[in-house]
């Protein structure tokens, strides 16, 4: 099955990249301009595959355009530029829902075993384990505009998607206590605990405080930092940078300069 998937996707990747899409990338995804030539070519191949397989749906009256599709696809595919096997390109992703701006979602908070409190929360995006990503378009544009601020909604939510598919944070939860070496579980687990401790002591941190919510959010936040502030992350958290470089099979510090 995977052999056929890889073969089919390689054929799709060979399709010519429309000039209209080139213009969209140039105007809306400045990150691509910093990529080496080989990675730019590979990114366009991944975008072509992504757009061939992924359904986009506009919400709250938003009309889906190529600008929206290509801008989101490009940023999502930056995360998987390290892959050499096209059998693994967001296999569990089914659809991307796009709102024009932050939206309100219904939430449930369980205060104890017997009482559930319902409410509403404004959100910029979210990733569902069933293969759906939800994004606010204006926040997508904001994230793409500044590639050095460590804030990118598409990177964040698609990191969650990769976490669902590969169990990045479940491995930390399952193996942290048993890990004796500088493995993924040990390094990420230690970094997360230190990060929470630093926030509790009001120490300044490179990472967004939202990462202290739980391990899944920590993974999404460090992914944003890894791709947008790699030099700072490598200098301040070298072991964490190394583990992320191994996970994503990329070294953005070599081409994304502060």
Automatic annotation (TrEMBL):
Cellular component aspect of the GO annotation: cytosol
Gene3D superfamilies reported for this sequence: Collagenase (Catalytic Domain), Glucose-regulated metallo-peptidase M90, N-terminal domain
Stored PANTHER family: MTFA PEPTIDASE, PROTEIN MTFA
Protein name: Zinc-dependent peptidase
Domain of life where this protein originates: Bacteria
Residues in coiled coil: none
Record-level Gene Ontology MF annotations: aminopeptidase activity; metallopeptidase activity
Membrane-crossing segments per the record: none
UniProt-listed InterPro entries: MetalloPept_cat_dom_sf (IPR024079), MtfA_fam (IPR010384), MtfA_N (IPR042252)
